[in-house]
């Protein structure tokens, strides 16, 4: 029985460089120095030897994520506004991929945000 591992990205086949694969055998592949560019659809093809040459292909999508290194930052324009005042608050997340979702709540209740007012930087 033999197997091959293939990575397809956006309809293009891409081979993994030998320095990106380590401690791999006929059952397991270990990828080194994974980057966002390695996000894609991975397939494992298993072929039986003579006489049947029966083949099974299994696959799955892998997405490499980048987690923010720092905690989110919350800035309140006025920590103690008076009734009737306008209050501006800003919540910023560190660099991440995919971009994180920020959800606002007041005392545990969700705050409706107009999608046109959301900013993704």
Automatic annotation (TrEMBL):
Domain Ig-like stretches: 68-121
Disulfide bond is among the record's keywords: yes
Record keywords: Disulfide bond
Cited PROSITE patterns: IG_LIKE
Keyword Disulfide bond included in the entry's annotation: yes
Annotated Gene3D superfamilies: Immunoglobulins
Protein name: Ig-like domain-containing protein
Species in which this protein is naturally found: Fopius arisanus
Highest classification ranks of the organism: Eukaryota, Metazoa, Ecdysozoa, Arthropoda, Hexapoda
């Amino acid at each position: 029985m033999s197997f091959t591992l293939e990575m397809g990205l956006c309809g293009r086949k891409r081979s993994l460089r030998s320095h990106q694969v380590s401690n791999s055998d006929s059952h397991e592949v270990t990828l080194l120095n994974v980057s966002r560019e390695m996000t894609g659809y991975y397939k494992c093809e298993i072929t039986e030897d003579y006489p049947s040459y029966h083949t099974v292909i299994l696959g799955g999508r892998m997405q490499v994520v980048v987690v923010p290194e720092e905690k989110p930052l919350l800035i309140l324009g006025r920590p103690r506004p008076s009734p009737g005042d306008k209050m501006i608050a800003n919540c910023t997340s560190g660099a991440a991929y995919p971009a994180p979702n920020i959800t606002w709540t007041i005392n545990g209740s969700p705050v409706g945000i107009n999608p046109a007012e959301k900013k993704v930087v």
